[in-house]
Amino acid sequence: MMSRDPMLPVDKVTIETLVSVPGKRSCIDLHVHSTASDGTLSPAAVVCAAAEAGLHIMALTDHDTLAGWDEAFGACPPGLTVVPGLELSCVYTASGQHPTSVHLLGYLVDPAHPDLVADLRRLQGERSRRGEKIVKKLVAAGYPITWDRVREFADGGSVGRPHVGRALVEADVVASVDEAFVELLSATGPFYVRKADLDAVAGVRLIAAAGGVTVFAHPAAGRRGRVVDEAAIAALAAAGLAGIEVDHPDHLPAESARLRVLAADLGLVATGSSDFHGSNKVNRLGEHMTQPSAYQELIAGAWGSRPYEG
Ligand code: AMP
Ligand code: ZN
Ligand code: FE
Ligand code: FE
């Protein structure tokens, strides 16, 4: 578990403690967050950290926003390719069941696609309203945080529970963002508030309509909450899903092995990624990676935008 001073300027976080240095070439990490959502490194800092970690290809996948793309492109060091992406907040609802939270990674979408732009604007508003509700509940229970401070931590980016977690760390309620999740912010905790996310089938179709390709993020991350079954993944595959994130820090080895078989059965690309969030999470850049052949197969289906080569 990492506990860091939340007031530390993000670019001064010691990169060496956050990143791994993979020893082989063609190091591809397709799931990375920046301050455009709930990461702690700016888009410019995260592409530099990626190059320093030895990555050759890095996808920027902030929650429900494309706002970090231009800064990441502008700062992209020589030798690094930045794949523009996002992580779309969705729910999957099987017939007669409660909706289950599902994250979809969309790569290489057209950033001007009108339906995508409209849905992202709605999701941003939803995140903000829901964040304020969580803070109200915490304040009513006596926790000394404010919505203004949480918004300062979000700094104009997509508001998420990790920003509430940072306010709780600053107020000395908990020692780390991770502890904030365990004690107060988890989906099963008393302060959880749902947000109105996109239907997952509609999400796959939206990303396809915007010229992108979709990968189901951490489909077996059961530690975070309920996960969907294989029938749901098959249904999303039928709707146009291109891949599933097989290797992820929240998957146990047996789950990754099962997902690899499922990907082969359903004709889906198997990816591996870190889900790096800077000091908001313990995940290291390049902790899991994607095979070059899988990457090529994945991006071959996209036409909405192009990887940016530094
Ligand atoms: P939200 O998007 O507001 O629902 O917050 C969920 C996000 O919080 C996830 O996308 C993760 O990036 C992050 N998260 C989940 N669990 C933890 C944890 N234990 N520590 C830090 N961040 C977490
Ligand atoms: Zn996140
Ligand atoms: Fe996620
Ligand atoms: Fe993520």
List keywords for this structure.
nine-stranded mixed β-sheet, binds fe (iii) ion, alpha/beta, binds adenosine monophosphate, binds zinc ion, 310 residues, disordered N terminus
Report on this model:
- By secondary structure, the chain is an alpha/beta fold.
- It is 36% helix and 16% strand.
- It contains ten helices and nine strands.
- It has helices spanning 43-52, 69-75, 114-140, 147-154, 161-170, 177-185, 200-209, 230-238, 253-266, 292-299, and strands spanning 28-32, 57-63, 81-92, 100-107, 198-199, 213-216, 243-247, 269-272, 308-309.
- Strands 1, 2, 3, 4, 5, 6, 7, 8 and 9 form a nine-stranded mixed β-sheet that branches.
- Helix 8 (230-238) links the parallel strand 6 and strand 7.
- The protein is globular and about 50 Å long.
- The two termini are 34 Å apart.
Radius of gyration: 18 Å
Main sheet specs: 9 strands, mixed
Oligomer: single chain
Shape descriptor reads globular
Percent of sequence in beta strands: 15-25%
How many distinct beta strands? 9
Mean pLDDT: 92
Structural class call reads alpha/beta
Measured as a percent range, the helix fraction is 25-40%
Helix and strand run? EHEHEEHHHHEHEHEHEHE
Number of helices, counting only DSSP H or I runs of 4 residues or more: 10
Ligands and ions found: adenosine monophosphate, zinc ion, fe (iii) ion
Low-pLDDT windows of residues: 1-24
The first-to-last residue Cα distance is 34 Å
